[in-house]
């Protein structure tokens, strides 16, 4: 096999994968129509584009009472505030996720409690959740991560026994299903990001699915500057801010939902093909898909490499794959070693009031550390929109990297010595 591209050889894949986001004349027409209407922003809430987008999203996801917001971090903060969770309360979050999952409780005045992940799927380990519960625990935020879903049967059982709120972080899980139920409709809340890289995007934005109409109306009040809402004939007030998303973004969402089913089908077929091929690559371990996870969403697709077989850490392997033309990443580092999660730099009240709760120097999260610092590899969603050829190129590049592993390790060592 030819020399690695990172060492001067030819790329396995010289042409780029399909771009994201996808757009066509429908997007231009939708935005133009909103511009011509003169109703661009999110007030009064909800506007006609927002209502249509949310109605279609609920139909796709299979339920829930939706609220549209500026991003998928605020959605989790608003969910906590809607559930009256705040100062000094504890919220359990997984060690492998984007920093927003742990930052949202802090914004609400709560303390994120970080627990380890299940090595089989890199999602929150329900056994660790149970161990972390104290009298101050009020909520759990399971994250459906990298084409996997957290064991929602176990999480909901724990929540019911301990009277806890569950907020599903579904930033990676648009269209995913557990036992046929849509992600985000199983817990009390479901938080979805619409940021530009997500498989359903409006550029920026987020959707919060609420379990009841009462929760929805309260969340709507919070994101609408605290304007009062009516429920069961009574007027209620909240303290809120402007977290609304505008009609221009919602119009893009309406069009994106038209494309979504075919894109999802394409990604899932490619993922199944990839798994057959990866099972024959030495040093690659597939993450276990729970049979109760009936429909997958492929935003990023994760697998593990054996550093000993590859003779390199996942950082070196990913750099080599990128040089071969394969878009990939090492994924999230464990939260307690995450440069983007430094609570003491935030100057938020809760880390100042409870400094001992944010001292992570003695925190041990061995599974998250092993995954996030040595073995996880995440493939970009674009790989799964290029048919069989796109997958074949991934497999060929992986075989090339593992075959030249010792050579790559020597080159990496020489670079470190300089």
TrEMBL record:
Pfam family membership, one: DegT_DnrJ_EryC1
KW Transferase (keyword) present: yes
Record: active site: 198
GO molecular function: pyridoxal phosphate binding; transaminase activity
Positions carrying N6-(pyridoxal phosphate)lysine: 198
Entry keyword Transit peptide: no
GO biological process: one example: polysaccharide biosynthetic process
Key words, A-Z: Aminotransferase, Pyridoxal phosphate, Transferase
Similarity annotation: Belongs to the DegT/DnrJ/EryC1 family.
Name of the protein described by the UniProt record: DegT/DnrJ/EryC1/StrS family aminotransferase
Species name: Anaerolinea thermolimosa
